[in-house]
Design a protein that fits this description.
Elements lengths: L1 E6 L14 E2 L23 E5 L2 E7 L14 H10 L4 E10 L9 E3 L2 E4 L25 H13 L4 E3 L2 E4 L8 H10 L3 E3 L5 H8 L3 E10 L8 H23 L8
Parallel strand pairs: 1-4, 1-5, 5-11, 6-8, 7-9, 9-10
Antiparallel strand pairs: 2-3, 3-4, 5-10, 6-11
Helix pairs in contact: 1-4, 2-5
Length: 256
């Protein structure tokens, strides 16, 4: 099994600290290997990791030095790099704020839907004379959600299945009035990077799922403190590690 993994703000840099995962430099893929220069440069090289008999190709969404704002990320190049590396599926981790009060800080969420509030991002491979329409009924792959939910149940992880990820422009946090609006729209989570990632994966035909880690209550729902957010991100990585281990041990991913 070969899985693409996109890591967000809280993701650790040292894979050797993760039990069961082993860095595999022979699997690395250089960002420079992307043949279509019109797309520009991806955020970073793909780092190869072994987990049992499975392979992980890890991409640091914000760059190796975490220097890219959400609106500066070259999502098109990132997704194409993973697709060219022939990953079977993409697991994208996101740190998010919780709008729905029933979702606890520190918990994981597998959202099923998305609302895009971003603007100005290169969000399609179509254009330049090519008109392409894709179905987007399921922004996050239902089979992958089911697989991850099964793994979470087996490992007694604190996880919520379902919900709506509202994607905002960033890098600032939202105002309480904006969060009230998103809640009226039906959003249960708020983050900055699920779009256009999910749509680009759909264009490329690669199954994509979000594993969202709630690191704070959204504005107006609680106090937002950066130190607490960073600590919640570090603490949540243990859950994500267990979830990924379980996923990579599955015989099938229910991708149909």
């Amino acid at each position: 099994m070969r899985i693409g993994l996109i890591g967000g703000s809280a993701f650790p840099k040292d894979w050797n600290s993760w039990a069961g995962f082993e860095r595999a430099p022979d699997l690395d893929v250089s960002a420079a290997s992307l043949g279509d220069s019109e797309l520009g440069e991806p955020s970073a090289d793909l780092l190869g990791v072994h987990c049992g008999d499975s392979e992980v190709l890890y991409l640091a969404r914000h760059g190796a030095e975490h220097h890219l704002l959400p609106s500066e990320i070259n999502y098109r190049a990132n997704l194409r790099l993973l697709a060219d590396a022939r990953v079977e599926a993409i697991v994208a981790t996101h740190t998010v704020g919780g709008i729905d009060a029933s979702i606890p800080v520190g918990g994981l969420v597998l959202p099923r839907q998305v609302i895009d509030y971003t603007w100005g991002r290169a969000d399609t491979y179509a254009g330049n004379g090519e008109v392409t329409h894709i179905e987007f009924d399921h922004p996050f792959h239902p089979g992958l959600i089911d697989t991850l939910a099964k793994v979470a149940g087996e490992r007694s992880l604190n996880i919520t299945v379902g919900g709506v990820y509202g994607t905002t422009q960033g890098p600032r946090f939202e105002s309480p009035a904006e969060i009230d609006r998103y809640e009226r729209d039906g959003a249960t989570l708020v983050g900055m990077t699920a779009m256009p990632e999910a749509a680009l994966a759909a264009e490329l035909g690669v199954p994509y799922v979000s594993v969202s880690l709630v690191v704070n209550a959204a504005a107006g729902r609680g106090v937002i403190e950066l130190d607490a957010i960073h600590q919640a991100g570090r603490d949540g990585m243990a859950q994500i590690q267990a979830l990924l281990q379980g996923l990579l041990q599955q015989r099938e991913l229910f991708l149909q």
